[in-house]
Amino acid sequence: MEIAKWIVNILHIIFALSIIVIVLLQSGKQAGLSGSIAGGAETFFGKNKGRTIDALLGKYTAFAAIAFLITSVVLFMLIKSI
């Protein structure tokens, strides 16, 4: 049981750090006037919006957040059982 706690705790820390890194890699939504003009053109003319780096980072963020939530619940259950 102690080994399971260590493994889940390490995974929990990895997911927490990955959320921080992935969120910092994403570009901001408020890029100023030039960003709003270019962003509007990109959404109007861009056909591959789902394949951009921002979309990919968004998917990774969602995965890391769900994994972080799951490891949080598992750690709670492991600690509560003792």
UniProtKB/TrEMBL annotation:
InterPro entries: SecG
Alphabetical UniProt keywords: Cell membrane, Membrane, Protein transport, Translocation, Transmembrane, Transmembrane helix, Transport
Top-level lineage group: Bacteria
One cellular component (GO) term of this entry: plasma membrane
Main location: membrane
GO terms classed as biological process: intracellular protein transmembrane transport; protein secretion; protein transport by the Sec complex
Residue intervals passing through the bilayer: 6-25, 57-79
Compartments it resides in: Cell membrane
Record keyword Manganese present: no
Pfam families to which the protein is assigned, alphabetical: SecG
Topology within the bilayer: Multi-pass membrane protein
GO MF annotation: an example: protein-transporting ATPase activity
Function: Involved in protein export. Participates in an early event of protein translocation.
Family: Belongs to the SecG family.
Protein name (Swiss-Prot/TrEMBL): Protein-export membrane protein SecG
Taxonomic lineage: Bacteria, Bacillati, Bacillota, Clostridia, Eubacteriales
